[in-house]
Every structure is written in structure tokens, then in C-alpha cells.
Please model this.
Amino acid sequence: MTRLAIIGLGLMGGSIALALKQKSFDGHIIGYDAQAASLQAAIASHSIHEATSDMGTAVQKADVIIIAAPLTAYSTVFSIICSHLQPSAILTDVGSAKTSVIHLAQQALGDAFSRFVPGHPIAGMEKSGIQAANPHLFQDKLVVLTPAVQTDKEAIKIVTQLWEKLGACVEQMDARLHDKILAATSHLPQMLAYTYLQTLRTSQEFPQLLKYTGSGFKDFTRIAASNPALWAGIALNNRDALLQELHQFRQHLDELIENLSTENDQALQSSFTTAQLAHEKSRN
Amino acid sequence: MTRLAIIGLGLMGGSIALALKQKSFDGHIIGYDAQAASLQAAIASHSIHEATSDMGTAVQKADVIIIAAPLTAYSTVFSIICSHLQPSAILTDVGSAKTSVIHLAQQALGDAFSRFVPGHPIAGMEKSGIQAANPHLFQDKLVVLTPAVQTDKEAIKIVTQLWEKLGACVEQMDARLHDKILAATSHLPQMLAYTYLQTLRTSQEFPQLLKYTGSGFKDFTRIAASNPALWAGIALNNRDALLQELHQFRQHLDELIENLSTENDQALQSSFTTAQLAHEKSRN
Model:
């Protein structure tokens, strides 16, 4: 029987526990969280068998450990894990940035690094915390694993099967490429939504102007409801790739400002059309 | 019996016609469009009584004229209207920018300018054209009228009643304030969505990276499906207010880049929190 520890019972950890229960996982699930309320919620939903607020206890009992903590907590998490880890235990995580996580793991885990399978489910929402957990969160979603050259093949297989059990499709990718792609498809839009709302907030007409928003505004800003601390952690952990995207964006923004200033109708239409066609491609 | 002319049977004009029909408007509706297919679609839906591809014909028969053409066509539309207008006819429009429209109308309409009631329904969608028209588009939506000092009170009353009949709430506002607010709540996010997709389009990983997008991406980019020519017209017609918003945004973007470059966790969290709280306010 697999003994599975989930480190962190937020949206991700809580959803993994609920999905395992829903898919009739036949192992034993130990949930760790620093907050008693999260542990209680997981116990109340019968999605974990055992709850502990001591990470070491959870880790030392486990064959498979899923790190579902915020990226900013990883360095603490790895240091506790490495002193309680069973010799053959397998580790994985759900962090949105992978190069920095691999770097940390390599430094902290020693020999156990080869049994760490870095992972990232492309699934989430603007809500956070176990109250937003959902057993269907990973159904038909993509989970990207970014193993290093030394990562144990058997460990990759076990983690892959675990995600597949939860309804996800699993794909392997180079960690750097993952970080570059996610910077463009996820981290950049998150930064833009935040920055847009900051701009709105500093307007003289705030908050009166909120009355004059439509459905476009609502959808465009939905992700700005996301947890600021979590996202500061993601941004910092994928700093280089994200900065590159931000600079690219700023260059296009400067072109737009220039074209609008000079009333270059043709250039505006042409760039909007490029964008519209790219959007169309994303809908296929 | 009111004789109403709708100039332009796109999403807006087509929806007005459908809504009037649904609300059992007892007047006579004349639809104008340059495209035969749009006229045919309006006739086929029985939402207009008469179709014409000659704008002058539509105008000279009408007591009330609704301009529902793209902003870029306004200068042509006004010049045709002013040579066919009945002496007591009332005019209104649905354009997303108002200062520039008022300026044009003032130059083109002469005495008739006092019977022009500039208007803007805060309702729309990323789709355009009569095939996207919807009789419920204005239900419980806000319509902002931006009359000038010389605008006839009776004309304002008639246009107000017309929109209220279609289910909308009507409010009056200074045209400059309207343009400033809409630049912030609607035109800026549209520019950002387009610019974001342009950035994505120029990535080396395009289009492969589209596979790694989630529901956040989908909502954030929905408005990028909007018509490029229409939006170039809106941007140019609200150039000054929009440029101001773009510069404000750019300043906040530069701060973000700076904070991320220097790994200023606290500053990042603080600005994301400002944004999250502003977003929360928009959901109330």
C-alpha cells in the first residue's frame, strides 16, 4: 500500500486529496499543513486519512511525497524533508516555475535529488486555499514533468501514473523551456492584469469608474483576484524568463503608443490584426 | 408613428432592431447598411420594416436617426445625413468615444447639432456584425448620454425613453469625463490584450506554447477577438485620453520590471495586493 504525503493543503494539495478520494486511490494519505483549519477541512472532507501539523512526521511515513506548498516555502520544505526522508521515497511538486525549484532541490536533497520529479499541473484558478479545492481540477488537464538527466526513470513512471490516475495528461519537457513558455502564457498575463488594476486604482475616477465596466473588463481582470504572495513567489522564481517577456511586451507597448501618437491607422490595424489572428489560433 | 432609421446594421444596429421588435416598438424602422448581406439578415429576422443601401433615403424618411456605424465612418455619415435631414429630426449614436464625435457633429450638422444626442451603450462583445446581434444586449446595461450645453432637452428625453424601452438604464455625463473613464475601463484593457497577443505571436515558441494555456489565459484574451478596424477607430477617436492611460500603465509596468529585477519581494506583494483589492472592489 502506497503511503502518500501531501505537503500543503491549499487549492492544489486539497484538490489532489479530493481527486485521489474520488478516483478510489487505495493508499494511505497523510496531509500536512501549518494551518489547523486546512487540516480540519481536509479531514472533514474525508480526503485524507491522517492530518499533521508536523512536516517531518508526514515525510518520514511516506513512500511518495507531493510538495504543494507556495514556492516561497520550498527552501524550508526541502530542508525539513531531507532530514526525514525515507531512503527510497519519491518526491514531486506542483510549483509553477521549475528551473529555480530544481536548483534548490539539487542543493538541499543530496542523493535523494534523483528521486525528485519536478512537476507542474497546468490547472488552477484565481481562488486559493482548500475551500476552493475541487476533485475535477486536473481532469483532462496537462501536467508537465521536467526531470533532470539524473532523475530516476522509475520515479518518473510512478509520478506519471499518479497524475494519470487523477485524469491528467502527462508530458515531459526541459525545465528551461517550461519556464520560458509559462512566463509567456501564464506569468506575463498575470503581471499585466495586476498592473492594469494598479493603473485603474491610481485613477482620479476610482472607484466611480468601476460602474462603467462591462463583460470584457470582468473577464480580462478575473485573474487579478489571485493571491498576491503566491504570485510574488512565482514571479521571483521565474524572474529571468518573466523579465524577458515583460521587456518584449514593453517594446510592443511602446510601438502602440508611438503609432497612436502619430495617428498611424494602418500600423494600428495591422498590429491589432496580428493579435486577433494569434488569438484565433489559440481557440483552435 | 415614429419613423426610426438605423444607420449601420452591425452588432449594435442589428441588436437595436431586434430589441425594438422584441419590446413591440410600434414605429416604422428603416435599416441602412452598405452591405446587402446585412440588410438581408435584418429583413429575414423581421426586425426592420424597410431596408435600403442608400443612406440619404433612410435619413430623409426618419424622425429619429440612430448612427450605429464604425467611428471611422462618422465623417462620411454626418455629411450625408446633414444634406438629407428633416428639419425636426432627432439624431443619436452609439460610438465608444464622445469628444471627437461631438466635435465632428458640431462641424458637420450646423443648426441640427442641437438635436444630436451623443450616446454610448456600455454593452458589447468581442463578436461583431449582425450575425452576433442579440435582442437582450442592452437589458439592464448602462447607456451614457453626453449632451452638449446646446443640446435640445426634448431630444434628450426622446433618446432616453428609447433606450429605456430597450431595457437600459440611462445616465448623462460630460463627454470628456466619459472618454477618460472609458479609456481606463475599456480602451486600455483592449490595447493590453492586443499587445499581449502580439508579444506571444513573436515568441520563438509560437504557436506550440498555445498548448500550455489554461482558463486564465482564455478569459484574459477573450477581447482580443474583437474587430481590429473598429478598435483602431476607437483608439484614434479617443487618442488623448487613451495615451494618458497607456503612459500611466507603462509607468506601473516599469516599476514592476524594476521590482522584479531587484527581487524586491515586498514591493511586488504590495503592488499585487493593491491590484487584488481594486479588483475585489470591482466585483462588489
Notes: The CA atoms of residues 201 and 236 of chain B lie 24 Å apart. Chain B touches chain A through 94 residues (CB under 8 Å). The first helix of chain B runs from residue 11 to 22. Strands of chain B lie at 3-7, 28-32, 50-52, 64-67, 90-93, 116-117, 119-121, 142-145, 169-172.
